[in-house]
Amino acid sequence: MNEKVISVHNLVKKFGNFIANDHLSFEVYQGEIFGFLGANGAGKTTAIRILSGLSRPTSGKVMVAGFDALKQPEQIKKNIGYMCQRFSLYEDLTVKENIMLYGGIYGMKKQLIRERTKSLLVRLRFEEFGDRLIASLPLGLKQKLAFSVAVLHEPKIVFLDEPTGGVDPITRRQFWEMIYETAARGITVFVTTHYMDEAEYCDRVSIMDEGKIEALDTPAELKKKYQAGSIEEVFIRIARHGKK
Amino acid sequence: MKRLLVFVKKEFIHIFRDFRTMVILFLIPGALILLFGFVVSNDLKNARISFLDLSKDEMTLKLTDKICSSGFFVRGENLHSYGDIERALRGNNNKAVIIFEKDFSRKLISEGKATVNIITDGSEPNMATMATNYVSAIVSDFNSELVGGGAAAMLLVHPEVRMFYNPTLKGQHMFVPGVITLIMILICALMTSITITREKEFGTMEALLVSPLKPIQIILGKIVPYFILSFIDVIIILVLSWFVFDLPVKGSIFLLLAEAMLYILMSLSLGILISTVSKTMQQAIFISLVGMMLPTILLSGFIYPIENMPKIYDWVSAVMPPRYFVIIIKNVMIKGTGFSYIWKETLILCLFTVVAIGLSMRKFNIRLQ
User: Fold this and answer.
1) What ipTM was assigned to the predicted interfaces of this complex?
2) pTM for this one?
3) Domain residue limits, chain B
4) Contact A88 B203 (CB under 8 A)
């Protein structure tokens, strides 16, 4: 088994009386694609915010990239990449300027940023777009670019919060190819999505409901356990069960 | 530090690439200062004024001539009795009526005292105050001429001298400080609150927050560019007011610039505070305009004197930081006073800054928990 890059033990997060995360425990390994599913309001976003150092756990032990989420959130931030639901590049900056900005924020040397920018643009067949404003690019390209920028500094883990929302099927497919490449490089991909076909692409999937993790396994095992034909069925069964 | 620089650079790109931001930053200050200086000028020009001269002697005729030749007033009619006054003012032609009492010269010489009454059209309060002030100034000028002319030391009237610090009676002298105060609030509070809420709306704030940038670096990165540009604006306004309106800074220029920096910092922290309480750009704009700009225009004492306001507005205006900066800048720029006269206002501005920064840091941290 690979090295553990995320280990969560009895994570609880309360907002007043509301329990957003109720004793979560799970582990994620290096180079894994970990699908983090759950209906809206199940507590996914809260958990991701804690894992990415944005928010502190109420209790429990959370280790990300070897650092404690309670005591060393700043160290965690240096070792992760993040791409949120809403698109996170600056529209009025050019492609290169955006890359320069995020590279600089993550403390990368200028020379290194330049090299990576070049190879990144080549890989995306983007060379001629380097000096275009982000605003002038179609959404699919923007999303792919945002993902590339999120892993520009070669983080240990990259968090993707619904990265493919509103994107066409072809771009989604290309996007997942990029995710596979990234995982193959040894970067752990922690992804949330509402597309259940995407969940099938993950190495392991967890399904949250009402602040708890109700199921966690490989897609194949989950389908076997719930005697379902697809992850979608598993998901609906779990979410419905909880609603009662 | 390097991270901060990258971030500041990006803010500058935002500013220079956005046409509207550039207009607000550099065109509006110049336009406002010229507008206020020339067009909306509160200067009295050619206001019609009538006279009720009950003594018609050498002195009153001289004084009448002096008032009419000042350029501010145009000679109206000669009234004959008190009964005419109401009619003269009601006709809306006359802005004011001046009454010389009976035996003006005689009283002046024998008692050393004579009375000039000014009756103004109260339906235009601004005009009325100004006419009163101008006439008073002219009368006191006349008075000192009399004294200087070797006549026996006589005290003519006791006009309340409000224009003491504005001997040429220029309206611009009152507006330049006001416009600086207004523009700084506009640029600093409005623009910073907009740029921060814009990041929130576009989702880039999330990306910044999960990055190794510390909250204080994000805030500093937002403040630094606007601080620099606002400071340039202050200099532009001062240069404009010097060359166009012939209004140099009387006091220490360094003191003025230091105070301006403090005020800019205060406005910026208010902008950040506004952005922490508003979710969208519209909210930020609304709060900045209604919460900051209108009170600055109406309550800071730059257009309407605070002394003339009902007590309750006086209290409201006490929590408006611009009020204190108007006092500071008028003191340094027009009266030429030193720091010892304005330390209290300076301290109050510092206090506002600390409170605003403190509150926004707290808000920021709550959001992160």
Assistant:
1) 0.84
2) 0.74
3) 47-164, 171-368
4) yes
